[in-house]
Automatic annotation (TrEMBL), chain A:
This is UBC-like protein. Residues 4-153 form the UBC core domain. It comes from Guyanagaster necrorhizus. Pfam families: UQ_con. Residues 123-153 are annotated as: Disordered. Signal peptide: none annotated.
Automatic annotation (TrEMBL), chain B:
It comes from the Eukaryota. It comes from Guyanagaster necrorhizus. Residues 283-308, 446-473 are annotated as: Disordered. The keyword Isomerase does not apply. Residues 293-308 have a biased composition (Low complexity). Signal peptide: none annotated. GO terms for molecular function: ubiquitin-protein transferase activity; zinc ion binding. InterPro entries: Ubox_domain, Znf_RING, Znf_RING/FYVE/PHD, Znf_RING_CS, Znf_TRAF. One of its GO terms (biological process) is protein ubiquitination. This is Uncharacterized protein. Residues 16-55 form the RING-type domain. Residues 79-125, 151-195 form the TRAF-type domain.
Amino acid sequence: MASISARRLAKELHEIQTEGCPVGINLLQADDFAAWQFTIEVMGESLYQGEVFTLLFRFDKHYPISSPAVQFVVTDGKTSPVHPHVYSNGHICASILGNEWSPVLSVIAVCLTLQSMLASCKKKERPPDNDRYVRHAPDNPKKTQFHYDGNSP
Amino acid sequence: MASYNYVDPTNSNLVCCICRTPFLDPVSTLTCGHTFCRACIVEALQHSSQCPVDRLPLTLEEVVSANSIVRSLVDELVVECPSPECPHTCQRQLLAGHLRDSCSYAEVPCPTGECDQLIPRKDMESHRCGHTLITCHECGTQLSSEDFKDHEAECLPVSLVCDFCSAEYSRDLQSSHAETCSEAIISCVHASNGCSWKGKRRSFTPKHIPSCPYEAIKGFLSLHESKMADLREENLGLRNKIDALQGHLQNATRDLHAAKTALGPWYTQSLAHSIVERSPHVQQRVTSSTPHVTESTVSSPAPSTSADTPDIFAPYFPEDESFSAQASPEQLSSFSWRPLHGTSSNISQAWDPASLTSRPVAQNNIAPLDLSTTLEGSLSGLRQSVVSLSASMDSFGRRNEIALTNEALRVNEEIRSLRANIHGLRMQVHAIMMDRNAQVTGRMQEMPSVDGPWTASSRFIPGGPPVPSITKL
Ligand SMILES: [Zn+2]
Ligand SMILES: [Zn+2]
Ligand SMILES: [Zn+2]
Ligand SMILES: [Zn+2]
Ligand SMILES: [Zn+2]
Ligand SMILES: [Zn+2]
Ligand SMILES: [Zn+2]
C-alpha cells in the first residue's frame, strides 16, 4: 500500500510527463518519491539571462501536508543564483517553502514561484547574512527558521 | 480501502486539492465552503490551522460532512476491482461489497477459521488447512491434513484381541466384530422402555426374549412412539405460530402507540377502553355522532376514515369543550374563541372568503379547534380557515400597497416644494457672495486668488507607491 505522499507524487509526476513542464523548467531526475531535480532558467529579459540552475526537491512522508525541502544544487560545478533571498549554499528564503506552504501547492507551483522570484530581481547580490548563515547552515533547509522580512518577494 | 483506480477521468471539481484524487468521505468548511477528503483536511489542520486553499483561519469544528450531492457523485464514480486479475468494474460505493461477497480473486480468511491464511475465493473449495491436525483412526497418530492422505495408504491395520471372546481380528473389523461377538455383554432392545436385562448376546434371543415383559406390548409401544412424534411436531408448529403472532402483536402495539401519539388530544384512554367493553352507552354515542362524521369526511382524502368506519373512530373524539381548551392552550390562547357545532359546512359558511374581504373586522375570529368532530373535520375546517386567512392577507397587502403609493406621492410633492425653496435660498446666497467678492477684490486687487491652490491641493490625493507585480513569496 503506497503512502499518501507517494500516491500524490505519482500523480504529479504523471501530470508532468503527460502535460510537460512550463517553459524554462525541465524535469531532470525523478527516480523515486524521495528526491526530484529540475533545471530552471528565467525566460525573457532578466538579470539571469543564459544562466541555468538546478533545483533539488526532497519529500518526506507527510508531503503534501508538510512542505518539500527545496534548494538549488551547488555541487558538481553547479551554482545557486546570486539573489537577495538565495544563499550561496543553495538554500532559499521563501515563505511558501515555510509558513505559507499549503497542501494545495505542488512541485510545479514551487518551480514557477521561484522562476518568477528570479525574474523580478532588481539587483544581483547575496543576502546580507550570507557568510554567517552558510557557516552554520543545516544540511536540510527545512531545519532553518527563516525570518521572512516584509520586502521578501 | 485507501486507493481506487478510477476508470474514467474524474471531473476536477470532485478532486481533493490535497491528495489530488476524487474525494473520499468528503467534508466542507463552514467558513469558506471548500471541500476536501476528511482524512486530508484533518491531517492538514493538525499541521496548520488554516484552509489550505485560501489560508483563512479554520478549525476542525468548522468542517462538516459535504453536501449529499457531492457525496453521491463521488460514491458513484466507476472504479476497477483492485484484485490484479479481476476484470470487474463497479461504482465506488459497491466495491467493498464486491470484494466481500463476490470477487473470485479477493483474498478471504480460511472459512474453517482453523488457520489464518488468506485464500483467493476461487481456491476456497480446494483449500486444505496446512496445519490442521487430524487423528488417524487406525494408529492414533496426529497428522496435518496435507500428510494425512499419504498416511492413510501407508497405515497398516494392527490386530486386536476381543475382551469378551479373546478372538483376534484386524483393526478395520473392530466395529463389525463388536456387533456380532456372541460373548459380548448387551442390554435388551427394550432397554429404552425400561427393561433392565443385561447379558451375553448368545443368551438374548433364546432366553430373554420369551420372558421379556416389554416384548408382549411391542406393538403398542411403537404406536405410542409414532403418536408422540406427531404431537411433538405439531407442538413445534404451534410454537412457531405463536412466535409469529407475538411479533405481529408487537408491531400492532407499536403502530397503535404511534397512532395514539399522532392523534394527540383526539385520543382519550377512557373511551378507548369503553369501546373494548362494548357498553350500551358507547353504542348510543356512536349512533349519535355518526351523521356529522360522515358529512365531514366527504371531502377528506384520508383513507383511514372511509364511510363505513366512523363507528370505530367517532368515540375517540370527545365532545366536551373543556378538554379541547386544555389540549393546546399556548397555540390557541391568542385567538378569540367561538364554539362551533361540529360540521364543516358550518365552518365554511362562517369563513366564506368573500364575506371576509368585505368585513376585515372579523379577521380576529379563528375557527376553534373543535374536538367534537373527527380529526378530518377539524382539519378541513382549519384548511378553510387558512384559505380565508390567506385571502384576507392578500386584500390587506393590496390596501397597504395603495396606502403606501399615496403616501409616497405626498412625500414626493413635499420634497419637490422643499427643493424649490432650497433653490431660492441658493440664489440669494449666491447674490450675497457675489456682492461680497466684488467688495473684497476691489480692496485687494494686487493679491492672487486665495482659494485657487487651496482647493486644488485638498482635492488631489497623491497615489501610493505602485502595487508590486509579483505576489509575495
Ligand atoms: Zn477555504
Ligand atoms: Zn484528499
Ligand atoms: Zn473483483
Ligand atoms: Zn485454512
Ligand atoms: Zn494410522
Ligand atoms: Zn468377541
Ligand atoms: Zn428385555
